[in-house]
Design brief:
cytoplasm (chains A, B), Phospholipid_synth_PlsX-like (chains A, B), 49% helix, 12 helices, alpha/beta, two-stranded parallel ribbon, homodimer, 10 strands, 326 residues, Isopropylmalate Dehydrogenase, 14% strand
Chain lengths: 326, 326
Amino acid sequence: MGGDFGPRSIVQACVASLSATPSLHLTLVGQPSLLEELIASHPAVDRARLSIVPASETITMDEKPAAALRGKPDSSMRVALELLRDGKVQACVSAGNTGALMALSRHVLKTLPGIDRPAMVAAIPTQTGYCQLLDLGANVDCSAEHLFQFAVMGSVAAQALGVARPRVALLNIGTEDIKGNQQVKLAATLLQGARGLNYIGFVEGDGLYRGEADVVVCDGFVGNILLKSSEGLATMIATRIESLFRQSLVSRLVGALALPLMRRLQADLAPARHNGASFLGLQGIVVKSHGSAGVEGFQSAIARAVIELQENLPQRLHGRLEDLLP
Amino acid sequence: MGGDFGPRSIVQACVASLSATPSLHLTLVGQPSLLEELIASHPAVDRARLSIVPASETITMDEKPAAALRGKPDSSMRVALELLRDGKVQACVSAGNTGALMALSRHVLKTLPGIDRPAMVAAIPTQTGYCQLLDLGANVDCSAEHLFQFAVMGSVAAQALGVARPRVALLNIGTEDIKGNQQVKLAATLLQGARGLNYIGFVEGDGLYRGEADVVVCDGFVGNILLKSSEGLATMIATRIESLFRQSLVSRLVGALALPLMRRLQADLAPARHNGASFLGLQGIVVKSHGSAGVEGFQSAIARAVIELQENLPQRLHGRLEDLLP
């Protein structure tokens, strides 16, 4: 029921995902009459693979996490997470209120042993491929121990996604040992002593985009600002390119020719493509789609959930955490 | 004597600035024999407006601020700041070690009354113009009071740069009141109560680039990460555009036609153009040029110092601070 565009675009994304992935089954959780109405506009959908579980309440985008936790026992978000906890579904995807989703996930699913707080991670495009950036906003204030746990989780997630020996770095405002705040410096000391982790040291904001690391760790305040400012800058550059191509007859001609190239670039950088952000460290797979992502974004969030399921990410995390955590 | 490229590119930038600004006088501080040698390769320069003051020591780029403060009484950086304090020059520009420059500036020049810590500010290009972003890395951990002081200083600086009623915002991970860490929430309360300040609330990373505010306030850790990651992303996008234009014969042709447009865009976004970052809150004008900025960057840092001098920025700050600070 969540997201800035509401359930309409979510239903549309579900229909597209079902036809793209024949083995996929989806359960929609929310107001049955509304959902049935939205599904009705897609008569070709395979209803054998698309079911509805009713939930009478909805958590709004600006609701406080604590209120969502206590006040709404039959919210669509909570019911979906309870289905996951009870083994009725194998992953949960939401475009709703991030803080509420995190609070409910921790409460309903619990964290893996050794993990204090789940983290939000997403793949960010770099000069050489992708890096997994975490935390993206679930944890505003983080201790060195939290950053250490994020590094361990990010490393395991990157491995599950195909990186053999992920280079793990801490995001900092310099690469020298003396730089940064207390939490970052202390986390560096913890990571230097961790067996079996390919910790490469500090990386700066520009180093992240140069592809210096496969996993970049920071607190949720910094990660969220980095992600959103990057989205804003990419949009600004795209807008400026378009306006450059509109300035004269010659530039309009060039623009018309360059348009397919620019579209390819934008698709490559589009946050919606990469915005299936996972919650790592829970006893279950939870993927958060950007609230304003629309159909394509929610579809890629479902795709990320499918990959994590195929790779047994929570089980792999659980196994590796026991070796890596002190 | 500082910067990643050393005094050679600084001397070059000084020569260019002198010919661009006929009323400008520059004093180079450092090793006289080396500086004379570098000046000698510019025989056309007006030596009546370019003097040298000797300093026997140099602060290295990785030197700890405390060591720079205590250990090197005759460093080029310290001598330059002492010239400023003693009224022999009217502004100081450096491409050296940021932490050392900040520590020495505070020690030699002192802060303005009511200011605990100076902040680093620079103009960031947005969809609608520029925003003054501060702090950019001088203050890693900031209290709500520090953020409040930054907001006041940023507002006054934006006014001096020509914005009649600067919209001042706090950088946060959401625009709702409940979002963010304690410092940001408390700073919001302080700013809401400030007379004569056009505080507009929270802005997110993407809102900054949409041009939602003229002054955006954050701690130095966040600001530095935002600035450097933006530089890294802009470089990555430029690289990708170039490689797109190299993929086929048609795209090469389009690329050749689009090249002048792309160059204009890059010049517009280039961090070197906007990298004259000022230290606000000191009893004197200090501008920090990016260490890796090269000639153009150092020249724009000198240009920013000239503007601040013409606008009497420290004096204006001093006058306004008394009204605005609680």
